[in-house]
Design brief:
Length: 818
Amino acid sequence: MKKTILSALVLGAMLSPAVNAGAPNTDLNLMPYPHSVELRDGKVEIDGDFKVFIKGYQSERVAFTAKRLLKRLERQTGVPMLNPYVDSEAKATLVIDIDQAPKTAVQTVEADESYTLTAKNGKIVLASERPYGAIRGIETLLQLVETDSTGYFVPEVTIEDTPRFPWRGVSYDTSRHFVEIDVIKRQLDAMASAKMNIFHWHIWDDQAIRIQLDSYPKLWQMTSDGDYYTKDEIRGVVEYARNLGIRVIPEISLPGHASAVAHAYPELMSGGEGQSYPHQREWGVFVPLMDPTNPELYTFLGKVFDEVVELFPDEYFHIGGDEPNYAQWTDSEEIQAYIKEKGLDGNHGLQSYLNSRVEKMLDERGKKMIGWDEIWHKDLPTSIVIQSWRGHDSIGRAAKEGYQGILSTGYYLDQPQPTSYHYRNDPMPTGITVDDKLHAGETFATYEWQKPRTKGGPRKGLITIIEDTDGNFRAFTDYNGKSREEVYILEYVPGKVFRGHFDNFMSYTEFNLAFDGGELAGNSYQLIGNVRWPTTGKLIAGTEIDDSVIPEPNGGYPADLTEEEQKLILGGEITAWAENYDSMTVENRLWPRSYAIAERFWSPVELTDEDSMYKRMAAIDNWSEISLGLQHHNKAMMMYKRLANGQDVQPLVALAEYTEPAQYYARNWEKWIQTPNHGDLYNQYERLNRFVDALPVESHAVYDMVKLVNQYAEGDSEALEALKGHYETVLQAAQQAKPILAANVASVDSVVIAEKTIEVAEIGLTIIAKLEQNQSVSEKERSEYLVKLNDAAKIYDEAIVAIVKPTEMLVVQSNSGK
């Protein structure tokens, strides 16, 4: 029987389809990696005699940049930098040479952020055309600092660097859960270290409005529970960000996500006479929708805009616009009559009518409008910017119509996801990457598949596998109205088994399908992130079916942009929605993963090596704690100590290294179904103190275990000993952690995580013992192990026993005849 197996051992592994030819070297632990790096022998010493000379353009911000560099050097080295400024280039260790002032008083999307950095002959020169380049360059310099037994130094190097995309942003939701000012400023420090340049501040949503507004005080007084940002605090954040070369853009959501407005000023909604609305505490999409036919709405918006514009000098203003629930408009006879009278194309046309008026109001105040996908409409000018949460389809098709866009899909850091998934996600649409046409002599099979979701209806789609005349295979999927996507084949035995993966618009997805005649067998599943979802389906088309053809794509093809259209893609924006994070846990979601995404925004497109990314990210993770004072590890440790309740915390820490949160939206859905009345815990009252809340997003220890299994499969017998060490470590940790978890009401539900980890670790050690003694694993044993592993792969207290993946790979390897 014909068969293709790229590697039976990549089961669950996340392979990158990208080609690394022409990629820059990554010899240094820098992130994002510069565009050109020439490394030489030699070094420039960093000691207490370090001196700085500022040459060319000078300003308070330039002085702030130099002072910031010196303070960070002291943090990194512990060496006092006394009297660090000198009056000549000849006396300086570091020369900051800025050619001229910024083109505009307020930073714009066109700002020049390029720089060069040269270290040689005992001197470092950081040169840039504008101050923004110097701000970016000091972060590279700080990442270059190394130490050995003789002292601190930077290597002799020449770097030429400029960003790939001008828009490199982060959208932080501080509405659903309040985030303190000091935490926000720390994130700004970290953003600057990653060369990010936009803070999109989401301060207005259903659950709370967190901005002080004098014209409509009930907005924040009635919805924020006293947790809001004063005007002076906002001014302080904007100025702090400005000194870091970061623009701050506010989001005032309309017409939906308006429950907080509805609670404070119900007369502005579309619900009719006598309407009133509670303070919304739940998560989701809700009924209240602003009434575009009400003149008072425009008075309200005008006064709000006036106050917000005064606080945020950036040229852009975000109006939200996403997820409108049109029910109130549909149910209103007056509003439907208004739509007919104005000749609008339904409810979406009415939203566009509102947005057109808002766009003019903002233009009068000197602002450009930006909003989520739903604002895109033929009636709006191409001067607006589309921020896409719907993916490359949306941003690509908008570019085809002449609209600028930024991508957030694939960068949702409120979702636990493998960093590799985010790293592969490029803001630029690429068009179809697989030949989906059937040529002479080729055969094909198309299966219809369906997988359930815990919240909402099932997802449905097709997968088609084509075999060419040389016996090679290619595959693609059509699902949920999205454009056709290539599936990268891991293993395929026609009529028996198919394993393959692709990155869908919101998650890493892996097909693990077994065939039973024309049906998908009962053990078929899809891996979404790290969560298994049972998958059913059947053969609907194929060469063996008479008059059968490959179905047309139900979502069309991905956009293939011209060179001019590509210029409309401004970049991307990390997005972090706050249903499941607060000030204690937000940094654990963002860092260090944001560095990998920042590299995708800044660095050359050819930089795709995931092993290099993980290696450098680990180094930068350590650096960020020292240089910036990031708190993601410290906050997690505080949570582990809280769970340990005076007992030894190390078993929890060790167990956490091999455990992952359930990825994608599985955690949200688990909260939804935890109670008989679904949704009782899907709200602001839900606790965020579980073991899972302290976990890092992905297990780097398990990433190493996967690599070790692959190395063993390739003949490296020493890898088995290293793998054994991992199992022994996690087994001991789980055994010791179990009574600790059981002794705290916040973690008693996590005891099962320890129990399942023990069970899986023991399977792994049993197989390793057999392999060490050249003993075979019987088919019966193998089947029993796989059944246990499948059970251990379930979600337990919102977490995943991550060692299931390498253990399952090991089970497969034990049967490979090695």
